[in-house]
Amino acid sequence: MLMAHPAVLSGLVERYWALAVLCAHDDTAETRGRMEDVAHTLCVATGTSSVDAALAAARYRLPGARTFDDSILAG
Predict the structure, then answer these.
(1) Which long-range contacts (CB under 8 A, 24 or more apart) does 2-9 make?
(2) Average pLDDT for residues 56-72, to the nearest whole number?
(3) Residue 75, SS3?
């Protein structure tokens, strides 16, 4: 599967959260449409089918991503 460049993912995630804030403040059809477009693009870029999965996949692929599973530290 083709993977989006981290810079593209970072921009999409930032745009999604900015639109989420804008929707919370000024919920219009235009803003919702823009947010749906970004959500769809995130899903395509990450190969997922929901925006929640897309955001998780994008965060995992971004520089500095860390696992929250500390099982490798247990010894």
Answers:
(1) 3/61, 4/45, 4/46, 4/61, 6/61, 6/62, 6/63, 8/45, 9/42, 9/45, 9/46, 9/58, 9/61, 9/62
(2) 70
(3) coil
Region class of 69: left (phi > 0), else alpha (psi between -120 and 50), else beta: beta
pLDDT in tens, 12-63: 999 999 999 999 998 899 999 999 999 999 999 999 999 999 999 998 888 7
Q: Which two tokens stand for residue 59?
A: 């965060």
pLDDT given at position 39: 96
Q: Cα 42 from chain centroid?
A: 6
Instruction: Report yes or no: 45 and 8 within 8 Å, Cβ to Cβ.
Output: yes
